[in-house]
Amino acid sequence: MRINEQVIEQDIQAKGLTAPRLTPADIDAVIIGEAYHVFPDSTLTVCCLYLKNGYTVLGESAAASKANFDAGIGRKIARDEARNKIWALEGYLLRQRLSETNN
């Protein structure tokens, strides 16, 4: 089951949770480009997201059956996987900044 970021964001705002945090917009703001590759004779799609600081993040998807492979769907899934990895990276960075200001 996929978490709907917009629903979570609405819940956070409705509860008045105002401590420093990441938002979906923050995650999108660090992405400056993307590229995709489908490996020949496969259903493996790889997405590379390019971030502002020069770092890259990869995500992938693959259909179990070639009959079910759709390049557009593969790109969406691979991009979503790569984007989800950015949450952890940016979360670590925010936590580091917060710990530095509290010392």
Descriptive overview:
The structure is a single chain. The chain is α+β, with helices and mostly antiparallel strands and 103 residues long. The protein has a single domain, classed as 2-Layer Sandwich (Double Stranded RNA Binding Domain). It is built from three helices and three strands. It has a three-stranded antiparallel beta sheet with strand order 1-2-3. A hairpin with a 6-residue loop joins strand 1 and strand 2 (45-51).
Briefly, what is this?
The protein has 103 residues and is an alpha+beta fold.
- Biggest β-sheet description: 3 strands, antiparallel
**CATH-derived architecture:** 2-Layer Sandwich
| Gap between N and C termini | 39 Å
Number of domains: 1
Radius of gyration: 17 Å
Q: What labels describe this entry?
A:
alpha+beta, three-stranded antiparallel sheet, 3 helices, 46% helix, 20% strand
List the helices and strands and how they pair.
Elements lengths: L4 H10 L9 H6 L1 E8 L6 E7 L4 E6 L9 H31 L2
Antiparallel strand pairs: 1-2, 2-3
